[in-house]
Amino acid sequence: MTLKQLEAFYWAATCKNFAVAASRLNISVSSLSKRIGELEAAIGAALFNRDSRSAVLTPLGDRLLTHARDVLHSAEQFMRRANDARALSGRCRFGVGELTSLTWMPRLIALIQGAHPNLVVEPHASMGQVLETRLENGELDFAIIAGPSTRTAIASHGLGQVQFVWVAAPTLYGDTPPRHAQQVAERTLITLPNSAGTVRILDEWLTEHQVSVGRRMTCENLGAVAGMLKEGLGVGFLPRAWAAALIQRGHLAALPELPPLRPLAYTFQWRRDDTRPMVRQLRALAAQAADFDSPPCLL
């Protein structure tokens, strides 16, 4: 029995499928299956039931999974002490939300490549719920999204908060900007979709002020949301730095008399069972790079 065989067994059992597990270990599916087969031969019993369309753990495999995790954790602790001062290599896949991708993600990648030039970085930008699912399935090594996560398999570490402000095109309200929450409901509300982290603070705001939105227009792209607001298609909210840049150019007007939204916390998230030194080191770099008040890199 080898650590590589245990790794193959553990990640095959905890990832979405064998293909995801193989990708995480940077090996082919056939190599993954071979390692699992060698482990089963050493044990003298099957760990996966391959009679169904997808491989599922046998009762023995289910009982041994926790022990495999403990052995791998001990090995990770040993390697952490041996490799703390060494640069990382291999491949890292991580996910970020729309706001992070358009502000400080490039700085994070620059820091990672400066500290670990042999580490191949693959960033993915999407909605928070999508990234959480991919993270839990083992398709991502970490994610930076609104949090903390409510999923028990995912751990969260705070990186900062984002303050959003209400805005609209200068022509939408003219000289009579709205003062009450109900006046927002009378216009089209333009926001990111429900799968985005901002839905948390929006729902809280609507509930607190007992407002029901009559018409809502959503888009997964924050830049497109800002563009629709600029065209006067409705009212909405943007990160403070985005809003300030567009207000300064005369594209948008602030709506300061509306009740404010609460700040939205963002976190570095990873699987609780992932104790690799890479995750810990990149979490430290993310904390160093995080700047949610920076203006969008496209402006």
UniProtKB/TrEMBL annotation:
Family: Belongs to the LysR transcriptional regulatory family.
Gene3D superfamilies (alphabetical): Periplasmic binding protein-like II, Winged helix-like DNA-binding domain superfamily/Winged helix DNA-binding domain
HTH lysR-type domain: residues covered: 1-58
Pfam families the record matches: HTH_1 (PF00126), LysR_substrate (PF03466)
Keywords: DNA-binding, Transcription, Transcription regulation
Protein name: LysR family transcriptional regulator
GO terms for MF: DNA-binding transcription factor activity; transcription cis-regulatory region binding
Keyword Amino-acid biosynthesis: no
Keyword hit for Ribosomal protein: no
InterPro entries associated with the record: LysR_HTH_N, LysR_subst-bd, WH-like_DNA-bd_sf, WH_DNA-bd_sf
